[in-house]
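Hi support team,

I've been running sequence recovery on a batch of backbones for a student project. Most finish fine, but this one hangs at about 90% for roughly twenty minutes before it completes. I'm not sure whether the input is malformed or the queue is just slow. I've pasted the structure tokens below so you can try to reproduce it. Let me know if you need the job ID as well.

Thanks,
M.K.
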């Protein structure tokens, strides 16, 4: 009889430990998730969790310089540069199954007046470069907004390669027809 009571007591003690194991696993999982969230917060949003009060003077000065530079570029973006109308381009698009054409008319935004004369002087090279660029595109390349934005950046880059007295700030599509 005494042996049976000891076995029951030992089984109860062992059973009590089994009930604690799932609770420990849950607590450990919660701790791991919280730790991961804190680490992610520190990595992806470093300014959110402050460590040690004020920033050093060097960091404050650099942030002031950065915000001044941002304001400068924002003011430059807000002021519209000189607009220059390019002649329209009509090119065949690269498409093995269907004959497609692109008619494109653009306005160039220039950063100064001297660039206008330089563009007039370099017009044959600029037209050639843009015709080669446009005729290398497929309909799939230019049908999306992202494709048009990429084309805009490529046009700016191509034209700016020829310029020395200034640059093209932006390109505006005033006609964009694919047939």
């Amino acid at each position: 009889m005494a042996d049976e009571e000891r076995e029951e007591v030992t089984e109860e003690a062992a059973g009590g430990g089994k009930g604690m194991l799932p609770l420990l696993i849950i607590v450990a999982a919660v701790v791991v998730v919280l730790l991961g969230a804190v680490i992610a917060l520190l990595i992806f949003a470093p300014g959110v969790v402050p460590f040690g009060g004020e920033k050093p003077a060097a960091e404050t000065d650099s942030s002031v310089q950065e915000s001044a530079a941002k304001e400068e570029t924002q003011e430059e973006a807000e002021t519209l540069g000189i607009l220059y109308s390019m002649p329209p381009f009509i090119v065949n698009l690269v498409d093995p199954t269907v004959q497609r054409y692109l008619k494109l008319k653009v306005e160039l935004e220039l950063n100064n007046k001297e660039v206008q004369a330089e563009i007039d002087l370099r017009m044959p090279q600029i037209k050639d470069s843009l015709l080669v660029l446009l005729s290398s595109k497929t309909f799939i390349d230019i049908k999306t907004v992202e494709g048009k934005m990429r084309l805009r950046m490529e046009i700016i880059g191509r034209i700016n390669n020829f310029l020395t007295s200034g640059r093209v700030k932006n390109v505006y599509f005033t006609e964009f027809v694919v047939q």
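--
Follow-up from support: It reproduced on our side and the slowdown came from queue contention, not your input. The longest helix spans residues 2-44. No action needed from you.
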